Amino acid sequence: MEKILETLKSERIDDSSYRSPAESTCISNLIAFLLFLANDVDNAVEEINKVLSSPNNDTNIVALANMAVIKWEIGDRMEGETIIERLQELSEQGNFEDKVIDAKAEMAYCYSRMGMSFASRAEDIFEEVVEARPHEYTWKYGLAKILRRFTQSTYILFFRISFELASQKSLRAFDLLLEIKNSRAPGGERAQALTELGLLLQLKWNKQFSRLVDRAEEERITAQQCFEEAVELAPEDPYVLTHVGNFYNYAKQLDKSRQLLQRAIEIRPTTTSYHLSWEDTCTHVNYPKS
């Protein structure tokens, strides 16, 4: 839990992160929940109040529910009941179903950040949200990212899924990411989708994913093309820089790798994976690490 909390906090620190407002709200609500679990009630309440005072979030169901639970648990039951009454009033409004979909999207996002054991739950809820909101690319990207994880051997073994099912998930992820790539979504969202697409296409060595390779060939798209376009669209996004830097490291294009990984560290210096990638690159090319 502490590792997840630190990761979320570090992602929010840098000003160059390419997040949608919806994702920023998800991160804040998840941070509040984790702070509460860590018995840091004051900061949890402060985090929730920031969400509720942000644009278009004064009736955010997840934030209100979090606050109600916290107030109840710390003994302020009158305030907790007041918040519950407010939620009940919201349920009687005509746009409540839309707010429920928003809340489900947030829950899917939270599950997607909570580790492998929650991945199936995240996938199921994301599918429901995507069906209800087919033009909101933030949630299509979230679904595609989870689906790509199911192509990893650790997930295949953990969930005991067949390679056939993993292959189907890879094709679903490919189609979602390709749709975002070709959409009018903001450049940052398309860059992250391209990064995920590049990661997915690195499975070309695995015969179990031959149908994915065929789809990529039909679309005339390669992992390197995806990574290059991603950096062009989001040259200051640490997520993009790290994965593209790693790609060039494995491709033995070490100068490119060094440049990208160093830039990622400068933007977000607190994330261990970036340091490890940077140290690995330095080892290959004998660069000084400082």
UniProtKB/TrEMBL annotation:
One of the protein's GO biological processes: defense response to virus
Gene3D superfamilies from the UniProt entry: Tetratricopeptide repeat domain
Keyword Repeat: yes
InterPro entries per UniProt: TPR-like_helical_dom_sf (IPR011990), TPR_rpt (IPR019734)
Statement: the UniProt record of this protein carries the keyword Repeat: yes
Example of a GO cellular component annotation carried by this entry: cytosol
Organism superkingdom: Eukaryota
Keywords (A to Z) from UniProt: Repeat, TPR repeat
Start-end of each TPR repeat: 238-271
Family: Belongs to the IFIT family.
UniProt name for this protein: Uncharacterized protein
